[in-house]
Model the fold of this input.
Amino acid sequence: MQPKTNKMGTMPIGKLIFNMSLPMMISMMVQALYNIVDSIFVAQINEGALTAVSMAFPLQSLMISVGAGTGVGINALLSKSLGEKNTERANKTATNAIILICLEFLLFLLVGNFAVAPFYRSQTGDAQLVQYGIDYASVVLCMSFALFTQMTVERLLQSTGKTVLSMVTQGVGAITNIIMDPILIFGLAGAPKLGVAGAAWATVIGQCLGATVGLILNQKYNTEIRINWKKMVPDVDIIARIYAVGFPSIIMQAIGSVMVYGFNRILVGFSTTAVAVFGVYFKMQSFIFMPIFGLNNGLVPIMAFNYGANNRKRVVKTIKYGIMTAVVIMLGGFVAFQLFAKQFLMLFDASENMMTMGITALRIISIHFGIAGFCIVAGSVFQAMGKGTYSLVVSILRQIVVLLPAAYLLSLLGDVNYVWWSFPIAEIVSLLVSGFYLNRIFVKIINRLDEGDE
Done:
């Protein structure tokens, strides 16, 4: 297929966003579902196991941020290259993506071997929590090659508009994880009873299978790009272009790890139950946020392709449709959290204390969901236009400059319920700064493109 016939440059925008994003939104919801199921099964061991897995989130988030941020750079450069009809650069990008998988794995192999125990001991002196954490996080980090491979091959498919195939890859991995969770945690069907470590191995097995399927689908169906397996030589220029967009995204998402770590430190001053509640919130909110991230995975290549093709109308229409869709979904999430907070917590065998604390937490935090929908799509615009640093600035302001200090100051009031209000406060700041940068993008980049056809 020639780049000029690529659907990202010809299909009506509304239909294109639906075509590109819906498969990704479904696959991300499946991804969120297996994260929730993971914790539901772990919670059946005891609340300590759930707390330990919740404490692992910053390390897992850091690992995912490296893979996802690199993927953002790969996605943007590949789609822009195809929009510019630069097949050679697109192929080099795909080849270097495979090289980067190896480098990412080596980094987190070291983290998994040397950083997990000190990380847990910095948060708690409870020996059981520390051991649960080591059992879980060491496996996930030391076997990270599976995660990085799966994320990268999915991005290669997304970059050329093959989001249905990307959905298949994610779906296979997620469903495998869901099936393996109870088998390995509780030792069913003749498998060893691994407890918390079983949840980690179930995740890794799902990622391995998803990565394998993704590699096969890329080789068989992704005809617009070709990976040169015989010339796996790093191209400094290509890698620099990938991380010009991807590195700010990595830092932006890694900041989330710092935020969660800091937030856990604040909450543990109240109780380990507060940490468990925060962990449940993150699991449940992923079911709302993951579809928005799936939407973004569809929006970024559309905007980057039409930016490369110098088509203003299609870029603007994509942004408008994206924002409207995200805000509507997030408002639906807000309603769900307000009405069904108790039912959400019951899924995790919440104690009476955890239930009381959790209902209040979920209802307060979810107030910011609608604003977050706008800000997330604005971030995808920044990435597609090659201005990933804007997203970085917004993320630093929201999570480090505002959210953590606000949470700490509110904690001084002596009631954990005040701490949850730091989320709506931080999101208001995010809205103001995102709006400023989005306007700047329009003035300096989008309005200077050719009008183009819809």
Q: What stands out?
A: The mean pLDDT is 88. Residues 3-448 form one domain.
